[in-house]
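Weekly puzzle thread! Below is a chain. First person to post its structure in token form gets bragging rights.
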Amino acid sequence: MRSVAGLLLAAAAAGASPATVWTDSPLARLEALALIQSLNAEILSSTSATLALERWCHDHALAEPAVIVAHRIDTEAQEPSAATRQDLQVTAGQKVRYRRVQLTCGDHVLSIAENWYVPARLSAQMNKLLGTTQTPFGKAVQSLHPHRETIAAQLLWLPLPKDWDVRVSPAGPEVNPNAPLELPQALFEQRAILYTPAHRAIAEVHEVYQRDLLAFPEPQLPQP
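Winning reply:
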């Protein structure tokens, strides 16, 4: 399984665009943290990361129409590890295919996703879509009514330190409201297994969510 660093290099090489500039203020950092946590939680509770990203794209007017497209960026197949084969409940001799994509909405790269899937557990039409089109995995297999079970999830960037809310002294990184908030390329990541309603594994995914998720104007809270 590729490292986060490897996926970030792929994103940079593929031309991931920078997000809209936010000011580097304590409020902006708190807003960024709240938004990242909200989307992270939404995907964790969703049956489809693709549909969650489309809702996010629509709600934050990132593109019109708000449609997620999968651009393949895999140059060579990555064999599944023994752990992945165990997760997928397949033997060493069973075929597992690999797909790595940028999930975009308009000009914005929202996620870099790796996917190991079992073609024998999908229909011929699903395999054709995955092999020859820009259809996201979640949409290609939607008729199977899959659900996600999370293996791991973590924030890759903390706008505020973990103990910012309990510090007595001034907390957090130095901020400059007159300067832009520098967003890292990656915000959070998730690993999950996709199952059919009969709890048959069809795919394992590793998703690194990108800074273009915040490529909209900085929220302005109403003043009291």
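Puzzle host: Confirmed. Bonus trivia for everyone else. Confidence is low (pLDDT under 50) at residues 3-19.
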